[in-house]
Write a structure and sequence with these properties.
Blueprint: H1 2-7, E1 10-11, H2 13-20, H3 24-32, E2 39-40, E3 46-49, H4 57-62, H5 66-69, E4 81-92, E5 95-102, E6 105-112, H6 113-119, E7 126-130
Antiparallel strand pairs: 1-3, 2-3, 4-5, 4-7, 5-6
Helix pairs in contact: 2-3
Length: 141
């Protein structure tokens, strides 16, 4: 975690609570119960590394009404939508590689560079991966 902390943005508990859509007291309880890892400043204040929020982002959208949490949901028939945070964007010519962090896992998608520009995607934005597949394979680990 120390290495991830050095390279990621640190958020105040209030900012983290706002991003997650929870109350500040709830976030503080998560910190005290060690549900959420933090870094302490020299003054003893808690700061939350941005990647630490990834595993909780899906909770924020689940609390809202469907029309609020998925404004385009009715326009898309796929239900396999995984909410996360954009961690990397690489644009090369006509294509772009976009990586999302979802629940501590990384999902990468290849889309057009135009789509990245039209959506105005930036690292740190909240986004969803829409999984559409006719097959799902399982590999024993």
């Amino acid at each position: 975690m120390a290495n991830a902390t050095r390279t990621s943005r640190l958020l105040s508990p209030r900012d983290a609570a706002k991003i997650l859509g929870i109350s500040y007291p709830t976030l503080k309880q998560w910190i005290y119960k060690k549900k959420l890892r933090t870094v302490k400043t020299a003054g003893g204040h808690h700061r939350i590394p941005e990647p630490e929020l990834d595993k909780f982002l899906h909770l924020h959208s689940e609390r809202m009404p469907v029309e609020t949490r998925r404004p385009n949901f009715r326009q898309i028939s796929g239900r396999n939508q995984l909410a996360g945070r954009v961690t990397e964007i690489k644009v090369d010519g006509l294509i772009a590689q976009v990586a999302l962090s979802i629940g501590g896992q990384k999902i990468t998608s290849i889309i057009t560079a135009d789509a990245v520009r039209e959506m105005r995607l930036k690292v740190g934005d909240k986004a969803a991966a829409l999984i559409k597949s006719t097959e799902v394979m399982i590999v024993r680990l």
